[in-house]
Amino acid sequence: MQDTIFSTSQALRWSRFALSAVAIASLSACANFSGIFSQAKPVAAQQAGLSTQAIPADSVALDSQWWKAYGDEQLNQLVAQALANNPNLRVAQARVQRVQAGIDNANAASAPQLNAGLDATHQLYTRNGLVPAPIAGSEREIATLQATGSWELDLFGKNRAALDAAIGQSRAAQADAQAARMLLASNVARSYFQWLRVQGQLEVAQRTLAQRQQTQQLVKDRLQAGLDTQLELQQSESALPDARFQIEALKEQEALLTNALAALTGQQNGGLALTNRAPAAINSVAAAQTKVQAVSMDLLGRRADVVAARWRVEAATRDVDNAKTLFYPNINLTAFAGFSSIGFDKLVQSSSAQWGVGPAIRLPLFEGGRLRANLKGKAADLDAAIETYNAAVADAVRDVADQLASTQSIERQQAEQKAAQRSAESAYAIAVQRYEAGLGNYLNVLNAETAVLAQRKLAVDLAARSVDTQIQLIRALGGGFTDTDTTSAAAPTSDTVVR
């Protein structure tokens, strides 16, 4: 008979719980986020003028330590010092660690939670409260020693969405750190090669000054011989200050570039000693990537900044998913076990034991539009992330196209400059031969040398531009960056946009 009564009572309790669950599920119809969705859409390859054809990995393969291909140990040391000492790079790495902590935090939300606590209070009970005599009006000690556990059942994917958002932010931060590393290395290399350019120009400028000093002395000799006038002497003298000005301007550039390299490598100004290198001693890097004729989405997927923007779209999408789950019930399994007593001496007696277990369900019904406002904010964040991605793609397309155009143009300019230099050097050789044969004067030799020096200066500038543009192209093509997620692509997936 008792078993029958117990079974009937238990059945009633479970039926009531089931009815309550059905009622709560019915009330979940109150969760209404209709009309809230993202307006922005990721740019399509055709819209950005990109090819959808996959680029073979080996056709534009880049070493992540691409600067070593130049064979300049001094450059290698500068880049290594910059990557080790630059504070901006350490800031980027700290951000990576910060967002990775967010992943651990999101993971913890899905795990069972267990806490323990001890509360001990000396209390005077009111005579006019709910507690009856003899406790009412007396001073007593109250103690509770209890362990409490809970486990949130992620039935609607709230915790999973939060975890995915944290992972997206972490991947974006990792890509940002790689982009900062690439930018730092390219800035060091560009500044170093600009410093070498200044050294080459200084050599030409110093030879120009010596040539003008020779010209002035020749004019003085001709003046004494009655072959020139004061006009020619004043003209030769006026050229000397300009030559000295050019040298001082180049020395200023040398100092500024040295300071820039010291700052990039985390060294004190004046503590950086550089040695000039002849251009012939620097390896010519044959970049297969310069043969790329069409920029594709696959190619842009090798840029850290585009990958970071894509991951932020993914993270913002999961934030929207998480905001939607807040409209649904929050279901927890809770349990507690411990001791509670009036009087410290009875706390751990078996008669003071207590425990409990059961579900806890919370459902938002009337929250004044707070959840819809939160979802609108997350949808706006997603719009901003998508538009930022679109801007990153547009900038990347322009960047690669610009560097390809400059690379091809500089190659043509160098071909024409070499032809002009050969002509100037040939004319100089003829002038020297005529002077040695007594058929011309040395002033003609110096004038011919002026044209040669001008071409040598232009050659130094074009060589520096060629290397600088090559470094810029390497940076534009990702600088050897590879996203560790093999499933990633340059463009967000179609389910990124909230409907």
Key words describing this protein structure:
499 residues, alpha+beta, Outer membrane efflux proteins (OEP), disordered N terminus, OMP_efflux
Question: Mind sketching the topology for me?
Answer:
Layout: H1 2-27, H2 73-85, H3 87-109, E1 113-124, E2 139-153, H4 158-224, H5 230-264, H6 297-300, H7 304-325, E3 330-342, E4 353-362, H8 370-436, H9 442-476
Antiparallel strand pairs: 1-2, 2-3, 3-4
Walk me through this protein's architecture.
The protein is α+β, with helices and mostly antiparallel strands and 499 residues long. The chain has two domains: 35-110 and 166-328 and 370-496, Outer membrane efflux proteins (OEP); 112-153 and 331-362, Outer membrane efflux proteins (OEP), CATH 2.20.200. It has helices at 2-27, 73-85, 87-109, 158-224, 230-264, 297-300, 304-325, 370-436, 442-476, and strands at residues 113-124, 139-153, 330-342, 353-362. A four-stranded antiparallel beta sheet has the order 1-2-3-4, with no helix packed on it. The longest helix is centred in the middle third of the chain and has 67 residues, at 158-224.
Can you summarize this structure?
Keywords: Coiled coil, Lipoprotein, Membrane, Palmitate, Signal, Transmembrane, Transmembrane beta strand. This protein is of the alpha+beta class.
Number of strands: 4
Q: What is the assigned CATH homologous superfamily of the largest domain?
A: Outer membrane efflux proteins (OEP)
What is the structural class? alpha+beta
Listing every helix as H and every strand as E from the N terminus to the C terminus, the arrangement reads HHHEEHHHHEEHH
Q: Major beta sheet, specifics? A: 4 strands, antiparallel
CATH-scheme architecture of the largest domain: Up-down Bundle
Residue ranges: pLDDT <50 for 5 or more in a row? 1-6, 486-490, 494-499
DSSP helix fraction:
55-70%
Global Rg: 39 Å
Question: CATH topology of the largest domain, which one?
Answer: Outer membrane efflux proteins (OEP)
Query: What number of domains?
Result: 2
Whole-Å distance between the termini?
A: 59 Å
**Helical segment tally?**
9
Shape: elongated
Q: What is the average of the pLDDT values?
A: 80
CATH class of the largest domain: Mainly Alpha
Order of the strands making up the biggest sheet: 1-2-3-4
β-strand amount:
5-15%
Organism: Rhodoferax mekongensis
Main location: membrane
Family: Belongs to the outer membrane factor (OMF) (TC 1.B.17) family.
InterPro entries: MdtP/NodT-like (IPR010131), OMP_efflux (IPR003423)
